[in-house]
Structure formats: structure tokens, C-alpha cells
Amino acid sequence: MRGTLKTMRIRLAAPSPIALLALVAGTGAAAAQAPKPVTLLNVSYDPTRELYEDFNQQFAAYWKGKTGQEVTIRQSHGGSGKQARSVIDGLQADVVTLALAYDIDQIAEKGGLLPADWQKRLPDNSSPYTSTIVLLVRKGNPKHIRDWGDLAKPGVSVVTPNPKTSGGARWNYLAAWAWALRQPGGNDSTAKQFVARLYKNVPVLDAGARGSTTTFVERGIGDVLIAWENEALLAIKELGPGKFEVVAPSVSILAEPPVAVVDKVAGKHGTKQVAQAYLQYLYTDAGQEIAAKHFYRPRLASVAAKYEAQFPKLTLITVDEVFGGWKKAQATHFADGALFDQIYQPGR
Amino acid sequence: MSAVRRWVSGIILTGGSVAIAPQIVAQQEGATPDSVQRSLESRVDELDQQVRILQRLRELAADSAAAAAKDKVTATASPKDGFSIKSADGKYAVRLKGLLQTDGRFFLSDSAFPVTNTFFVRRARPILEATVGKYLEFRVQPDFGQGTTVLFDAYSDVKVAPAFAVRAGKFKPPVDLERLQSAGDIVFAERALATNLAPNRDIGLQLSGDISTGLFTWQAGVFNGVPDLGNGDGDISDAKDFAGRIFLQPFKTGTLAGLGFGAGGSTGLERGTTAVPALASYRTPGQQTWFRYASSTTTPTTNVFADGRRQRLAPQAYFYTGPLGLHGEYIESWQAVSRAGAASVKLKHTAWQATGSFFLTGEKNSWKSAAPKKPFDPKAGTFGALELAARYSELSIDDATFPIFASPTTNPRRAKAYAIGLNWYLARAIKVVVDYEHTSFTGGTAAGDREPENFVVTRVQHSF
Q1: Mean pLDDT of chain B
Q2: What distance in Å separates the CA atoms of residue B107 and residue B286, rounded to the nearest whole number?
Q3: A204 and B63 in contact by Cβ < 8 A?
Q4: Closest approach of B29 to chain A, Cα-based (Å)
Q5: What pLDDT does residue B458 have?
Q6: If contacts are CB pairs under 8 Å, which of residues 37-76 in chain B contact chain A?
Q7: Which end of chain B is more exposed for a tag (fewer CB within 10 A), N or C?
């Protein structure tokens, strides 16, 4: 662009045939180099709407400044498991930003749309931000909920989404299970009994985390919402601290929502370069700031220190150390006929 | 939220304060009014939660049902689309359709050219159509009528957009109007004399488009090339025919909304031989051959054969308004022919037809078969739809044809036909037809004109 303007000045000052030729060549070259506008589809999980609305705008401006190319990013949100199935079934996602690695593994395994080692391609296991699971209660905490154990007490109504369709719900379930294991005499059997009692207190299973937040916050159902930390903090920010309170349980789980380029789709669309840049931008100072502003825990130490005060201090366990990784956790707890199906029987 | 709460509170606190409170007081002797109030509020809260939960569960159940419906493969049966199985997204479908026509043919006053009166199956066509993916469709239509098996349609369409589609296979070349109307939708049992000059089916590749939902449609294709009335499954020469058609329906609304007009045509080279002449014979509406080029089984070397340019041009139009339908066309067909001992001559035959029909029962007339307003149902006292029809058509053979390329003592120079008919639509799928058509000839015998054909046809048609 600057080059073109310079050429115009030369032409006005010295309208010689050579300058005219230079103008034609310069303009032609500039036209040939002007990159075509491009569109990305980011298929994400439920509570990331606000994060990516903000992030997309900033990335588009960054990319335009860097390359001159217009980029439009479309978003799709839903339960993480459901979103993964949609991508496997043909939803044309250039990138996926889902709630858990298992869902992207499924896209690699069943859809063959990206390599199996996709998680090694970006830092921190391709999770540019983390979160955890907390409890959101109504102002004044009328049911006196302090920790996971309170959720299984009679008379407490718990709102959480369906682990069959929601990634967040699987984190919720595993966090509760992990807490039960850490109780005196805790083992898989006592954990199963505890989680079964907890789910007896769940009157409604929404398909995704955002649906559960709506059920709890807007429809006034339940005494406690098991929620993503970012979702709980956002609810308080949006609706005011006068209505809800966050309860930090004694132990929770380190949730690492991963991101990946869907190679085959991006390759077909010719968007691989911009898709990679899009995800890499999440790791920059600017990307990490946006994540923190939307209550996701940043990976970058400098940004994490800046926003330290907004996150409650929790003991966090990981899926790998307690459940042997997502693949094993999925097979043991969430596959058809596995522990969740044994525990949760609708209508009972 | 607060409305639900108020609603429940209202019922409980007003009615309940009369009915329940005394019981609670009785159960909790010594309870203070405050504790009774708290107990009532607690019950209200519980009921409020139950109502909200039930509402949410009902919504989730409805969402699940809607999601399940989206993924559901549907099987349908209808007189319009036949029997079909379709994927939830509509991208994959199989449709089974059919056409069965059982005729009674009666020839009156046929002493000079006697024809046997007979019942027979004119068309028996199972039709298989499929949609494969977003753009690809195909259709296969054999015909087992009259005791023979003939493949009529076998083609695939790639429908990139309404304005651009590609068709490959065997199908109707885009030339004349009445031929392009489906055999189940034509007004009379048999097509008019003019259709003799157009191809029936041919194999080729066609591009087509529909701009602005019928405002302007176009087809252009390359085909093996067949003689007039021909139904070809191969070619006898390297040369190919090019065929094309444009059709406009310029008025979307108003009285002229049913007006359509356009023109079709074809051009190509045809080099026949005395053994395979590649020339047409022409038929009466009663399907009797009334004109054929000179040929002999005893001296086949004298047979006439196609020998050069073949062209057709067919301006055409239709108009439908309310119960009235009109359509007509004019066709010219040129064919260069040769015969041993004679110079090659380019002959031009011409034909035209005009057809009108009117629904006595008020149904809307259209290019497609009508659906009766009140299908036949004796118990309900409904009769179906009645359509009255009339037609005139002519076909003239080029004078230069005689006597070298066809004998004037056995082949008339011209045929003229008028017809009247009555169609009874019992339902969209079932039609009963009674037609009378009188065809007169100019020339055709040593003594003068060939005896006219007086043809009565009855038809029971089932199409779905």
C-alpha cells in the first residue's frame, strides 16, 4: 500500500513513460498481492461465546495490520461433545476450541480430520488458558453449601449439564469424584456412591454449560450450579454480586480446554495459515489478556500475576493424575453403559 | 419467573390459608403465626421449584424430540412424489414412481385400411429416481408396454445451481413442446401429428439453466442424433446433433402469468445407408404408419437414406389461466436424402398443432396433471374433475419427396386431424380418458385420398 502511494507521487512529479510503466506495474503487482478476504469457522463449546467475540475482533485487526488480509471469524457454540460430533459429521470447522482434549481426539480418530498428535503442536498441550470448576449459589448461600459434600445432602437441588453432551459436565463430574476419593476411606466405591447421591439431587440435565447457567440464573431452578469458574464469575459480573456468590470447594480439577486447527477442512478452504496464526495469537500477551478478562486463567506468568486476585485459590488435581487421562476417564465413566449410565437414571 | 412465583403463591396463600393452614396449625399445636407463615412460604418455594423444573423438563423433551426429528430418515408416500425414502438433511433420497396406461383402441369405418380393435397396455413404466449428495440426481425409466422392453430415460443430473445444471445419459432432446410434456400429463391419449417431426429420446450431454424461477429457461446439448420420432440407443455415424431450446415466462403475476413461449431446434449431419436408412416413418394419432420413405426388401439397394444435413425448428407457446389451458407449436424438419440414381435433395416437412382444454369442474389448468378439488368418493358424494379437450393438427410432406423418395400412391402428402376428448380425474393419480380423433389425408392412393382414420381410444391411467 505504501509502495503504491510512493509510486503515485513519482508519477505526478515526473509524468514520463517510464514512470507510467512503473505505475502500471506497481498497481498491477499490488492488486496481484492483495490477499483475498478469508472466513474462519471456530467451533467451540458453550461458555466461550463472549471470549471469542472479543478475541475475534482483536485478531481480525491484528491480522489485517500484519498481512493486509480481511478475516471474518464465525462462531459456533454448543455442548463440547455435541460440537465434536457435528465436526465429525461434516460441520466445516477450520479450528476447534473445545472443552476437553478427548473431544478433539474423537475428531482425529473418527473423522480423520487432523493428526492424532495434534496436542503437541502448540504449547501447554494446546491449551492456551485453563479454568476450573466452582460452585455458584444464590446470595446468602441459603443452603449453606461449602464443599462438594453438601451437594449430596437431602433437600439440595443441584444444576449441572449432561456429561453425555457437555464437556463442562464431565469436568464437574470428575471434580466431584476426585473430592470423594480424597475423603477419609475414600475409594472408587465410596466415590460412586457419593456421585450417585449428588446426581439424585439434579432435577434437570441441560445439554451444555450455558444452558445450565440459564436454568440456574434466569429460570431460578436449583440451589447450586456446578459451573466453569469463568462462567460463574461472568454470571456475577453480568448480574451483579447481589444475586449470586461463588463457593470455592476444597478441591477441584484443573480444566485445560484445548484448541486445534482442523487440518483437512482448513486445507480445503485454504485457511490453514490464518487458522494457525489465530490459535497462536491466543498465546500472545494480547490473547492472554483477553482470556483473563473473560475469567479464564492465563498461562503466561506475567498476565496470570496481573489477574491473580480475581481467581479463588484452590487445590487443583488433574485428569491425568487421578483418572489416568481422558481416554481412560471417558471409557470408565462416560461411555455407553459406563459408570455415569449406572449412576444416573432419569425419573428416579 | 416472578409471575410463576406469584401465581403459585396466590393459589396457595389464598386457598391454602383457608384449607391448609388450619391443618398445619392443628398438626403443630402451639406453633406461632410466624412459624406457620414460614412453613407456608417453604411449601410455596418447593412447589415453585417443582413447577419450574417441570417446565424446563418439558422444554428439554421438546428440544430432544426436535433434534431427533432432524436426524430422522423419512419414508413418504404421495400421489405427487410416489414412494420415497429421504435422509434427514434431504441430500440422499430414493423415489419410486410409476405410470400405467391401459388402452382400448377402436377404429371406425376402416374398410380400406382395416385395423384390429384391441385392448392393450400402452405404457407400463416403473420409474426410479435418486438424489445422491448435494448436487447429483439420477433417473431410470424403462417401459414394458406393448409387450416390449424399451429404455426411455436413464440419466444423471449435476445440479450446481438453478441457473446451471448438467445432464448426461438418455433423455428427451430439447426441441418440441408436447414431447417435453410427460406422457402422464398430456391432454390427449396420444400426442398430435406435429410431434412426428421431433426426436423422442436420444443419448447425449446437456447443459441447462432456470433463471428467476422459470422466467427464462434454457437447454443446450450434443446428442448422437436420431430421426424424427426416433428413440435411439447408439449412433451409426461420427457426426453429432446439437439441440437447444429457450423458453420464457415473462409474467409472474396477473392474467398473463400462465403465458410461456420459446423455440427449440436441432441441427446435425446424418449419413444413413440403404441397409440402415436413418429416416423416419410418420404415424397417425391411432399409431398407424401413414408415411414412409421408399424401401424394398427385394431390391434394398434402391432404398432411400439420410444423406446430409438434418435440422429442426419449433417455435412454441402455452397459456394457462384458471380452468383454461392452451398450447401449440409449429415444427419444420429438414433432412437431406439420397437414393441410387437420384441427386441428393434436402426435404422440408412441416407440421403444427393447437390444443385447448377446459376443466368443467373448475380446477386450475396447468402443464402438469390436475389434482381434483374433490377426488372421487361415492360415499362422500364427490366425483373428481372433468376436463374437456379439443385439438387440431397437420403434417405436410415436402412435395419434392414424390415420386422419387416416396410413392404418391401409397403415401399421402398431407394429414390433418381434429380431436375431442374428455378426461376424468378420479384423483391426482388416476385418470380415465375417452378421445375421438378424425384424421384425413391428401393423396395416398392411386384413386385419390387415403381413407380417413376415425380413432376412438379409452384409457385408464394410473400415475404416481
Answers
A1: 90
A2: 8
A3: no
A4: 25
A5: 98
A6: 49, 52-53, 55-57, 60, 63
A7: N
